[in-house]
Amino acid sequence: MDITLLVSIIVVVALLAVGGFFLVRTRSSVAPGKEETKPEVTQEPKAAPPQEDREREEGAVSKPPAHAPPARDTAAPAPAEPAAPEIETPPPSAGRMVRLRARLARSQSSFGQGLLTLLSAKTLDEDTWEEIEDTLITADIGVTSATQIVENLRTRVKVLGTRDTEEVRGLLRDELLKQLGTDTDRVVRTEPHGDRPAVIMIVGVNGTGKTTTTGKLARVLVGDGRSVVLGAADTFRAAASEQLQTWGSRVGAPVVRKDEGADPASVAFDAVARGIEDGADTVIIDTAGRLHTKTGLMDELGKVKRVVEKKSQVDEVLLVLDATTGQNGLRQARVFAEVVNVTGIALTKLDGTAKGGIIVQVQRELGVPVKLVGLGEGPDDLAPFDPEVFVDAILD
User: Fold this and answer.
1) Which of 37, 249, 292, 320 would bridge with 208, disulfide CB 3.0–4.6 Å?
2) Which residue blocks in the chain are alpha helix, DSSP H?
3) Tens of pLDDT along 279-332?
4) Are 214 and 318 in contact (CB under 8 A)?
5) What does each C-alpha distance from 110 to 113, 129, 131, 354, 386 come to in angstroms?
6) Which letter, b or e, does each residue of 166-201 get, where b requires 16 or more Cβ atoms within 10 Å of its Cβ?
């Protein structure tokens, strides 16, 4: 065989062998649909599990994943501490009735304006004077006081010979002030006696507003810079002590109270003792409402006063009267005055009645001045009674 042909055959065979090798490699690694040989993977050593995984393995409670709802706390939450009530600073007593004058004028306008209209008539005959007297009596001034006012007015109108509106108003104003008494002592005694506080007892029948008046009076005194202790001696009604507690907490006045049915005299005694201990200026004792016809209850009220006086003198016994009760209120006042020596009247609901003449009648019959008047439902609607402001309000 020719040497050249032999070399050519050897070269071709070599080339075919090399090409076949590369073809097989390529198909085994990239050909689709063919099973490829997986490379051997060397296992890396495991990393330490994260903290929460370790806790889970050790039985500890782990935090929930971010997407999971928070776990419900099975333990009952601790009760929240009640917020301390905010201490209020009430307005002082000075000028209270002036600020409430408009309210008083609205409630008493029919009384005052009716009298002015009659007195300004062109002819003041007997029928007109009788109508004036009836108007006064209807306003609960009382027959005696009404008769006296009419007689004085008739004399002065006749002497002056004129019925100008302003002059008539001045005449009527003078007569009403005479009946009310401008020189009457209306001061509520609240000054302590050395180391002993002043003591004020609040008395009256059911429904007149004794507890509310007690709370409002505490606001008046705190507004005037006095320190006050309240005694919840109305132990027949649990609601009364709760109500008084609310009033006291608003102005920072401590309240001495006991369980329902406790001896009222012991509560009053402890209240005065607390006042002495605290160095308070004034102790106000709210007593239970009682019918003036019930002898046993009235005697108990006398006992409360006697027990208190073993600790400190009682400076004021304020009888709370409802201005809308009229003549019945006067009968109540007489009985209370006999039992506990009433020193002053607190007249409530004066803004809700046209019968402000009860002030004149109570003072005339009992010789006891009206010292406080309630002119609304607000906490600061109790005011020291000022006769001139009262008369001007009903005549304006």
Assistant:
1) 320
2) 3-30, 51-57, 96-99, 101-119, 126-138, 143-160, 165-180, 210-223, 238-251, 264-278, 295-308, 327-340, 358-366, 387-395
3) 999 999 999 876 655 667 778 888 999 999 999 999 999 999 988 877 777 777
4) no
5) 5, 17, 14, 7, 20
6) eebbebbbebbeebbbeeeebebbbebeeebbbbbb
The one-letter code for the residue type at 137 is: I
Condensed to tens digits (0 to 9), the pLDDT of residues 70-79 reads 444 445 555 5
Rg (CA), the chain: 46
From CA 153, how far away is CA 103, in angstroms rounded?
28
| Nearest alpha carbon to residue 349 among 368, 372, 374 | 374
Domains delineated in the chain: 96-180 (1.20.120.140), 198-386 (3.40.50.300)
DSSP per residue over 116-176, as a string?
HHHHTSS---HHHHHHHHHHHHHTT--HHHHHHHHHHHHHHHHHHT---HHHHHHHHHHHH
Query: What are the tokens at 351?
Result: 């803004």
Give yes or no for a contact between 345 and 362, defined as CB atoms under 8 angstroms apart.
yes
Q: What sign does the CA torsion over 155, 156, 158, 164 have? A: negative
Tell me which DSSP letter residue 380 carries. Answer: T
Name the more confident of 47 and 107: 107
- In single-letter form, the type of residue at position 169 comes to R
Residue-wise pLDDT for 256-291, tens only, equals 999 888 999 999 999 999 999 999 999 999 998 766
- Residue 348 and residue 368: Cα distance in Å, rounded? 16
Per the listing, tokens 């019930």 go with 294
What SS3 class is residue 32?
Answer: coil
Task: Give the integer Cα–Cα distance in Å for 383 and 386.
Answer: 9
Binding residues: 204-211, 286-290, 348-351
pLDDT digits (tens, 9 = 90+) for 18-69: 455 444 444 444 434 434 433 333 334 444 444 444 444 444 333 444 444 4
Encode pLDDT of 372-384 as tens digits. 999 888 999 999 9
Q: Binding site for GTP: which residues?
A: 204-211, 286-290, 348-351
- Angstrom CA distances, 291 to 133, 288, 337, stand at 32, 10, 13
What's CA 338's distance to the chain center, in Å? Answer: 34
Taking the C-alpha atoms of residue 204 and residue 200, their distance in angstroms, rounded to an integer, is: 13
